[in-house]
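Notes to self after the Tuesday call (sharing in case useful).
The group wants a holo model before anyone commits to mutagenesis around the pocket. I volunteered. Ligand is pyridoxal-5'-phosphate. Logging inputs and output together so the record is complete.
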Amino acid sequence: MAPDGQTLAPNVYDSEPIPDAARAEIDRLLQSGDLFRYTAPSDAPVALLEAEFAELLGARYALAVSSCSAALFLSLKALDLPKGAKVLIPAFTFAAVPSSVVHADCEPMLVEVGENYRVDMADFAAKLPGADAVMISHMRGHTSDMDAIMALCDAAGVPVIEDAAHSLGTVWGGRNIGTIGRVGCFSFQSYKLVNAGEGGIMITDDPEIAARAIIMSGAYETNWKKHPGLTNSCAHWQNKLPLYNLRMQNLSAAVIRPQLPLVAERVAKGRAGHDRVAGSLNLSAHLAVPEALGPEERAPDSIQFNLVGGWTDRQATEFQAAAKARGVSVQVFGLSEGNARAFWNWQFLGEVPDLPQTRAMLMRACDVRLPVRLTEAELDYIAAAIVDAAQEVRG
Ligand SMILES: *Cc1c(COP(=O)(O)O)cnc(C)c1O
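Result:
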């Protein structure tokens, strides 16, 4: 707030403080030097985090690792796919997703995404027969039609991995996102709902997948004995799988654990803030926030909206500048230089096929961070700045 009580453009990049409870635990770990997850005979912070996260989401097993990218990679390896296996992914996702597929010696196949940011089910159904696995990215929490996807994949016998990196707390048809497919992967990188700087976790109900992922994450020798309920599966796989060493260390778990009880409140605040801004943007003839599909209950910490009614690329670029002049950073996914969410920038894939529908969406879809700590006045400032900037450019 400015001294006269007027709200200034809020800083949307700063994080929130980590709960105080983390400090005592970090002190204890620093004093003992007990930072490796497998040193303590039991109850290491990483093991406790796994138990708490599995309970929170309603999954049988959880494995904490160094990042969501590591979780996605281990999920693919745990499925035991043949080299060169084809993995369907949405063309609207973060570059980490095709990267994890390449890392696992598989080949990504890109599926078109509609202007509502969700998988185009006609293109998905057409491409599924060529796929060995499916990795669905719930981009910014936007959930594709998981009922239709699971029905098609179950009928075809194709396993589904959910990239729920940025979707913790999202619910689909009463089920937690990340528990619908065979494996669900989440991120604790700083821009996600739970912030540990870096970190990731995967959940599954399948003991074979859990055991294989645990061993490959670096549970060498018999360290897997510290993962409850998996003795038979892990004993079977010991020494038969490579060790990629993608473990989480205790300090990260100490930062994450006290944030888990705050997830429900953050989700509620994020949803209220998002819907408040969406209500204002939808009053503008130039802007539209796509509706979620019926079964989805969102958990947003950002807002995405489309420039509608015949904008040119030049006007879209001017709009970004006009919002910036008001102190609000708006990224049009396809117009911000080198954006890691624009598929044509994934040059590491070699020849990227053109996906005209996804490309058209990315050229008009805008991204604005709305951290859940923002006040209503700050949210209103952001909404007004966006609406005014659109009005200025479109007249
Ligand atoms: C952040 C993110 C990732 C990568 O997570 P890391 O923990 O940074 O590896 C993958 N997919 C999506 C959709 C993301 O938002």
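Two things stood out.
Residues 21-261 form a domain with the Aspartate Aminotransferase; domain 2 fold (CATH 3.40.640.10).
The first helix runs from residue 21 to 32.
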